[in-house]
What we know:
By secondary structure, this protein is mostly helical. It has two helices and no strands.
Amino acid sequence: MNKNTGFILGSLFVLTGGVIYTIERLSSNIYWLGQINSGAYPPTPENSVPDNFFTWSFLLIGIVLLIYSYMKAKP
């Protein structure tokens, strides 16, 4: 794996982790808005970041790949 491939893969993993996190928050807020219409709802939507394993794993893999590619790019 050369440095450009590592940068591209690392960026894609970080972006994928961000997209998964955004979709998770969006679905949580839509569910909360549905509860508001029913009359019984919690005061704030439940957005728990550490619950999703894939978000953290994609972000961690992406950051490791970016660091590895950056270290490989140095002379």
